[in-house]
Design brief:
two-stranded antiparallel sheet; 6 helices; 4 strands; mainly alpha; single chain; Arc Repressor Mutant, subunit A; 141 residues
Length: 141
């Protein structure tokens, strides 16, 4: 493994980026709780709504996106279904497959949270160019 020389300023900038990421994550969790959701429920709703298959994701798809074990995801889905946030639907083509879809309540809560998140990310994005401007490329040694 080769060592790469980093300017001292790079460490300060990397720290600032990681701090901002952690701050955003904490902010996001606080917003989810204020909306009556756990942070895991918020992430689950986003994983269902943001999935690229219009039929909805399978539990395994959500587990992969959330980086959870299948059985942990099943428990999260069970609790979200009881809370009225999503529902399980049998696939029309293959009745062995169960897909997930948001309920109107889940859609409404996610839409409100997502609007807040987009605004916060826009604010943070304005800071990112300054963070990396003028930082030289890393040199191989």
């Amino acid at each position: 493994m080769s060592k790469r020389a980093l300017p001292e300023d790079a460490y300060r900038r990397l720290l600032a980026l990681r701090t901002d990421l952690r701050r955003f994550e904490h902010w996001s969790e606080t917003q989810a709780r204020a909306a009556g959701l756990t942070p895991a429920q918020h992430q689950l709703l986003l994983a269902v709504r943001g999935h690229d298959d219009p039929r909805g994701p399978k539990v395994g798809d959500v587990a992969e996106r959330m980086r959870l074990r299948h059985h942990s995801t099943v428990g999260l889905v069970d609790r979200a279904e009881v809370a009225g946030l999503l529902r399980r639907i049998r696939d029309e083509d293959d009745h062995r497959v169960v897909r997930l879809r948001l309920t109107p309540s889940g859609e409404e809560r996610l839409a409100a949270l997502s609007a807040l998140h987009v605004e916060e990310l826009r604010r943070l994005a304005c800071q990112l160019p300054d963070l990396w401007e003028g930082l030289p490329d890393v040199e191989e040694h």
